[in-house]
Amino acid sequence: IWVVYLCIVLIAAAIMQTTHVIYRRAEMAGQPKWNSKAITPVTYAGAAAIVGALSVAQAKAIAEIFTLLMPPCLINIFIEPFFWMVLFLLGSAGGIWLNRSIAALGLYNPNFIIPLLQSNYIAFATISAGVYFQEFSTMSRDVWRWPVFAGGLSTMLLGLYGLFRAGQAQE
User: Fold this and answer.
1) Are 52 and 97 within 8 A, CB to CB?
2) Half-sphere exposure of residue 22, counting CA atoms within 13 Å on the CB side?
3) How many degrees, rounded to 5, is the angle at CA 97 between CA 1 and CA 66?
4) Tens of pLDDT along 1-23?
């Protein structure tokens, strides 16, 4: 399931980044596309957060790997290629996330882009870790868990919509 999820989110990130580039070029040329003020920050934050959120799953994987150093296992993880691959993915994804988060402050209104980046990061990190570690399988035990989870994500998105509309009213 993880590989399928990874393919889907990386394709989604590529589509978001491509859309962002197309919309930004149109803005720079003085011919903004439809709803450009909303689409450019959303696609920028979405692409950044998808990649950044993958670092959360890798950080959790590193923590799990480090438990192999403890008794009763006592495995030398530092000679295992898997450890170095996960560490590389953690550093790469985390570095991309930090770089794009800092760059976003110069591109967009910080009052909107910071909550947008953070909420996307939280949403994608939660979903990524849930898929990677199969944590969603425990949610099926109680029927109420999925609606509460979906309600929490929806509330966050509605709050962002409210922030965007408030920012539009001020301009």
Assistant:
1) yes
2) 11
3) 60
4) 888 998 999 999 999 999 999 99
